[in-house]
Specification:
Length: 168
């Protein structure tokens, strides 16, 4: 229910009362993400319900520090002491992502709606990592299996291209 409420708030430019998020701790398996000898961790917070444009004339450049503070406070409810242990942060708002070329601030290239997930991701005509251009393949966050920057689509695309080349 809170995810549905968060989506409704975002549709009108409001920040959700409760923040759906997906925390990832990549340094648990990749120690190169922290300084040598560190016993700390790196955490990425993926926020699925964040409006691109804020209501009331507010701007992400002014809001993002308060937003990440609020997100860390909420995460601290599940992992007590986490917020107090943070020594640095880098918050990339939808506006920041758009400046870097992510269409309308969307890091997963295409919305994560049901009809754009699974084998037909990002769209039916580009299913199977193929594009309308011969020998040009689509991979990354916008490709099957789903929007995430985890390398899965690149690995799968590579395997498919390898099979096709071997058959040639």
């Amino acid at each position: 229910e809170y995810i549905k409420d968060a989506q409704a708030a975002c549709m009108v430019g409001e920040l959700p009362a409760q923040l759906p998020m997906g925390p990832v701790f990549p340094s648990l398996i990749d120690r190169s993400q922290v300084p040598q000898g560190s016993d700390g961790e790196t955490v990425y917070l993926y926020m699925q319900s964040v409006p691109l444009e804020l209501s009331g004339g507010r701007d992400w450049d002014e809001e993002k520090d308060g937003f990440i503070d609020r997100a860390l406070t909420e995460l601290d409810d599940y992992a007590p002491g986490l917020k107090a242990s943070v020594i640095g942060q880098n918050c990339q708002s939808p506006k920041d992502l758009e400046r870097k070329g992510a269409h309308r601030g969307n890091i997963v290239h295409a919305d994560m709606s049901i009809h754009q997930m699974g084998p037909y991701r990002p769209i039916r005509s580009m299913a199977g990592y193929r594009t309308p251009i011969q020998n040009l393949w689509h991979t990354a966050a916008g490709a099957h299996p789903m929007g995430a920057l985890n390398g899965w689509s690149g690995r799968t695309t590579g395997r498919m291209v390898d099979r096709i080349i071997r058959k040639s």
